[in-house]
Amino acid sequence: MPEIKVTPLGAGQDVGRSCILVSIAGKNVMLDCGMHMGYNDDRRFPDFSYITQNGRLTDFLDCVIISHFHLDHCGALPYFSEMVGYDGPIYMTHPTKAICPILLEDYRKITVDKKGETNFFTSQMIKDCMKKVVAVHLHQTVQVDEELEIKAYYAGHVLGAAMFQIKVGCESVVYTGDYNMTPDRHLGAAWIDKCRPDLLITESTYATTIRDSKRCRERDFLKKVHETVERGGKVLIPVFALGRAQELCILLETFWERMNLKAPIYFSTGLTEKANHYYKLFITWTNQKIRKTFVQRNMFEFKHIKAFDRAFADNPGPMVVFATPGMLHAGQSLQIFRKWAGNEKNMVIMPGYCVQGTVGHKILSGQRKLEMEGRQILEVKMQVEYMSFSAHADAKGIMQLIRQAEPRNVLLVHGEAKKMEFLKQKIEQEFHVSCYMPANGETTTIFTNPSIPVDISLGLLKRETAIGLLPDVKKPKLMHGTLIMKDNSFRLVSPEQALKELGLAEHQLRFTCRVHIQDPRKEHETVLRVYNHLKGVLKDYSVQHLPDGSITVESILIQATAHSEDQGTKVLLVSWTYQDEELGSYLTSLLKKGLPQ
Amino acid sequence: MKLYCLSGHPTLPCNVLKFKSTTIMLDCGLDMTSTLNFLPLPLVQSPRLSKLPGWVLKDGSTFLDKELKECSGHVFVDSVPEFCLPETELLDLSTVDVILISNYHCMMALPYITEYTGFTGTVYATEPTVQIGRLLMEELVNSIERVPKAQSASMWKNKEVQRLLPAPLKDAVEVSMWRKCYTMPEVNAALSKIQLVGYSQKIELFGAVQVTPLSSGYALGSSNWIIQSHYEKVSYVSGSSLLTTHPQPMDQASLKNSDVLILTGLTQIPTANPDGMVGEFCSNLAMTVRNGGNVLVPCYPSGVIYDLLECLYQYIDSAGLSNVPFYFISPVANSSLEFSQIFAEWLCHNKQTKVYLPEPPFPHAELIQTNKLKHYPSIHGDFSNDFKQPCVVFTGHPSLRFGDVVHFMELWGKSSLNTVIFTEPDFSYLDALAPYQPLAMKCVYCPIDTRLNFIQVSKLLKEVQPLHVVCPEQYTQPPPTQSHRTDLMIDCQPPPMSYRRAEVLTLPYKRRYEKIEIMPELADSLVPLEIKPGISLATVSAVLHTKDNKHVLQLPPKPPQPPASKKRKRVSEDVPECKPLKPLLSGSIPVEQFVQTLEKHGFSDVKVEDTAKGHIVLLQEAETLIQIEEDSTHIICDNDEPLRVKLRDLVLKFLQKF
Questions:
Q1: Which PANTHER family does the record cross-reference, listed alphabetically (chain A) (predicted)?
Q2: ipTM score here?
């Protein structure tokens, strides 16, 4: 039976290092190629040796698909394509293609230049890797090869994020990547049509969370920032350069404008200007409102938000700083955090999810004494706030997407095992579909049962649909045809046509049965009685009495002769072809019982 | 398959294709050449135009002198300009299911169709097509509505009257169909019926037909369309270009294997090379400005103007024009310039690469930043303060009948220092200039039409090999003014089928198969038999379900078991309900083997007699006779059903079923 196999190399019961292998109808597709922010050793990249020990990856994979530019979805790509070696196509949307190399370069710099690691991918490798990328449009059907096609759907989440449908024949898989089912201040909501995939692979970051309304969260956020600034404290907001950062900037910009606030807002990296430029140029990927008004007012041109300089961190007085990266695991956000952590007037707001092992995760789980490099202990006195601004679908959103796409099976990735377990039960209860949650390296097999497309001759189809048009629709009409299978082509034609095409003659099989009836009357009277009898019983059939004295029921012929020895017995000859077998057989048994008196 | 041709204009097509059970309108072009018969709409009172004499018939009657004015020997209608609509009577347009738009120039009649014909379907177009199409419509509505004209002439349209008029009014076609411009609410209503699509997106129509837009290389978001079922493929090629300008290149490969290729929107100036024209444009512009004159470029607010600005960006410094101001005046100038920068995905490779940096794809961003290019919604307001001469003005409308261009024609027409350069190919420049004669201003004609020329067409057709080509009749003969140029027509085998306005073509095609799906349960139950090497057969008895034009074959339902308590016990007593069809048989019965088989099954008294055509097998005790011939077998027996069935099954063993 045809099957779809799914093996997560990363993101199986975990967040980070997203990398999922899918085998569908003989095609192998790799979904995402991410890095893990919680690790600095081998575990940060997926174990590609799982795919093949000694062969070339290009021979095993038909294509690679990247859902969006976050490093936990694309961070291992240059390592995979240039260091392990893959030359096949890599698909992503235009904004992802534009932004991905910049984040990869940033990541490389932090790892190699700051941490001094060797044996990491180089700038040239990032460039070479990007040359293998094929950019796709939303909803465009990309023919990877003759059989395999992929299609991108809008996913919200970050600029250019997409869900992908992978389809071979009538079997299909949808991979959501990360998505958001509610529009935010700069992006729209994810959308997919009722494509009824055999399998939906969905992220489940917020599998158990149902978030309160966006407005409340925004108000809360602004209130906290405002209060801290009012009492002269400093606010640190660790973010990734693209994504949440722009949404929160829009939020603060409008708030500062409205409240006429004077405290400075800074954005920490040189990426800001550039990042905002991407938003301006790819404005068609943002939400309806921004797209509609961009000619009059571009939302990504900020008046109040200025570039940050390292020296500003020591300035007295209140300020708000957006700094990268978002999980406080390295870089500028961590530096500023160390400077400000000791003062209880200050505040750090974590606007997104933090992977285990990161400083962000530690302080969010309540740790207030952190062991830093060189055994130094950092005491955290500043206020720590968590606000879910990351644009992942919550439990409600995930259910909503399942309702939209109507998959036959669901598979959860990109989440924590415990939470997945809960969501899995909920999905199975509500939708009565199987739900899977494989761990990394564990293979899930899903059996599909595809119907088989064949070519039916128009003549046969028209003949059948013409019959189907009759008012009597209660009885299912049987259609009879011959399936010709030749060189992988399947054609359904009428039996007559099949015989003709193969140059064969029909062999006619005919039966003639002698039925003896006790009836002393004259032959023609017997015939008449038989005729009336049949006419009475077989109301739905055409029963005819022919001038030559014979009777026909449909195409069955009945003739009567006198018995050669016994004049009181008449012999009825009932003759039919094999095609009328049922009726013929029925008639003989009916006549055998004799005629009603 | 039928094609209803509603427009006679080869580059502004409007056709309706009836294909399988769908009715598909291909483009919605609006023929605006009709406006050339009207007087220009001046933005400020023009003494010259208002003093034009009324037209007087040869016999001296003056009843038309309010409606018709004479200017330098030409007669113009003094009324709000009107447009020639596509045919609306050839078929009931409310039955149109979908409208496919190929580019923003070919959707200008959309509000007339969607708002006045009872149309209830969906319009499909790409995002740039819709956005820029909206700008074109906005500009059109704006330039006509801002100069309200009290008079609306209609008397001249009377057939009896029109007969008496001089050419070209006398020969104007379908004048009763000419309509005034639509309004913004109508534009908005029409555009709200559009569904956005992307290149290579497969869109299912009622499960019967699939349509797919492909890049056509002519303008931002411009597309050709594939309309196909599982077995037939119609390609609609409209406004395509193989030149590398700003849009994404044309997708030719996907047009292959078409049964029918409908070809419209070829270049209107087949003899002009666009690159040469751009060169001439630049040099004429430079010359005029150096001599202290102004340059007027009548143009649409989007399209070629982006390429012209890019050329000038590279040209002005070397030509010493850095200090000459460029003005772009249109109610949608700002929007057009802004929109051009955000369609990265629809641009050619070079421009896409720039966006990845990230830099704006078009250099006019820099021209604006450095104040070399300024844009204004109209000549009123800021423009009048900033206006410096000599300068270059890009403004519409290219017909010179409305828009800000009318003002500049009146303003600059009297000086021979100034030049008007025509770049848009849609209007004859001589006709456009007619109501401004006599004119001292220099006129330069540099039409830039990047659409396919006939050499490119014949190469394309050789490449994609359609079975049949359908095109407007204009493409099947040389242009009327160059009748010796037999190279300026489509040359292909078989010769193209041509159409003209209000004609209905029956397109040649033969359909023999349809797709049907066999459900897995049914497929499992099939027993294939290899009849010949490599060819297997299986007989299929199944229930046909048809829904949304999709056919599915399912296992027949199991016959309901009669309840045990039913009086009549034997099932065979019931009249057989639905007649289960028996397969056809083929093959022949080898007599010797058949007899052996009979003996094996306990018939001990088998006798065989030869006949002329075959054999007779006798079972003496059972008084049964089996006639066996090459193509037939006849079993004649007493009414002994078990015996008959046994014999039947033995015979069937030797035969193949179909």
A1: CLEAVAGE AND POLYADENYLATION SPECIFICITY FACTOR FAMILY MEMBER (PTHR11203), INTEGRATOR COMPLEX SUBUNIT 11 (PTHR11203:SF37)
A2: 0.85
